[in-house]
């Protein structure tokens, strides 16, 4: 599981334009700039409790957007497939260098084609 701080930062990257300016500012200050609730409250001249409530409410909003739109899930899936493709390319290169059979090489290439199809059709 991704650490919450990283997860919220990633969701923020995907969905920040759907938030209000106030919500964007607080999430950015808290998660990306690592300011404490007290520091944010002082900077924005509001109570620490108001900062806390806004951050918690905004976290829920970000998770709701992801539940509905699934942009982060799609991104993560594509990155996983890209990593798999990279590994297959390196394996294929080694098989070519070691003069593997044509059948093994064809199978690796077919596997790569399937991964490419997944990448471009999802």
From TrEMBL:
Gene3D superfamilies: Winged helix-like DNA-binding domain superfamily/Winged helix DNA-binding domain (1.10.10.10)
UniProt cross-references to InterPro entries, sorted A to Z: RNA_pol_sigma_r3/r4-like, UPF0122, UPF0122_fam_protein, WH-like_DNA-bd_sf
Presence of the UniProt keyword Transmembrane helix in the record: no
Record bears the keyword Coiled coil: yes
Assigned protein family: Belongs to the UPF0122 family.
Name this polypeptide is given: UPF0122 protein SAMN05446037_1001318
Keywords: Coiled coil
Residue ranges that the Swiss-Prot or TrEMBL entry lists as coiled coil: 75-122
Organism of this sequence: Anaerovirgula multivorans
Domain of life: Bacteria
Function comment: Might take part in the signal recognition particle (SRP) pathway. This is inferred from the conservation of its genetic proximity to ftsY/ffh. May be a regulatory protein.
Name of one Pfam family that matches: UPF0122
